[in-house]
Amino acid sequence: MRTRNTEKMELVRNMTMQMVATNGIENFSVNSLAKACGISVATLYIYYKDKDDLITQVAIEEGTRLYDAILKDFDPDQSFETGLWQQWQNRAYYLMKNPLSSSFIEKIHMSSYSEKVGEAISSMFYQSMVRFVDGAIKRKELVPLPPEAWWSVAFAPLYTLLRFHYQGRSIAKKPFKLTDELIRQTFEVVVKALKP
């Protein structure tokens, strides 16, 4: 069996992310990917079984990178405010530095690949977050809410700000660039909403 060419694999990974983020999964084809990478389709099949395997493996790799970044310096036993702020900083830093990752992961979340990719990478992340939230509720630092509700309140504002940042304009169609000050200001409002 041929050894993996790491430069070629990185090109394939990046181009897969770019094509899925730009055109969606339904318009992604192995033939188009091979052409964009300047390689043969047969070369892709050395590394991946088929299109589904390729998308799944790239999504697992990128999802793992994202989760590693989110959990950097995060302690699930921290106070709710401290831990949530670490999450916000990690997410904002990583996703502002990697906008392609954000767009690609969003397309994966909205597709039939979401469950399979999530199962492969979410175990450690899920356990850390459950421990973090359960601890905050026990310490009466967090209003008890269904996971979907607290998650929406805790992170949707950050992701909305990031979307405006990627677009370069606000909801009022004015130029927009996300700043540390605005992240912190928005975070303070979120924390107030989630505290008992």
Quick overview of this protein structure:
With 196 residues, the protein is mainly α.
Task: List the keywords.
globular, single chain, Tetracycline Repressor, domain 2, mainly alpha, Arc Repressor Mutant, subunit A, 2 domains, 0% strand, 196 residues, 73% helix, 9 helices
Would you mind describing this structure in some detail?
The structure is a single chain. This protein has 196 residues and is mainly α. The chain has nine helices and no strands. It has helices spanning 6-23, 30-37, 41-47, 51-70, 80-97, 99-109, 114-138, 147-167, 180-194. α5 runs antiparallel to α9 (180-194). Pfam families: TetR_N (PF00440). Keywords: DNA-binding. One of its GO terms (molecular function) is DNA binding.
Low-confidence runs of at least 5 consecutive residues? none
As for the number of domains, it is 2
Radius of gyration: 19 Å
For the secondary structure, the number of strands is: 0
Order of helices and strands: HHHHHHHHH
Mean pLDDT metric: 93
Secondary structure tally, helices? 9
Choose one word for the global shape: globular
Regarding quaternary structure, how should these chains be classified? single chain
Report the sheet with the most strands, covering strand number, pairing sense and barrel closure.
none
What's the CATH H-level superfamily name of the largest domain?
Tetracycline Repressor, domain 2
And the CATH topology of the largest domain? Tetracycline Repressor, domain 2
CATH class division of the largest domain:
Mainly Alpha
Strand fraction band?
A: under 5%
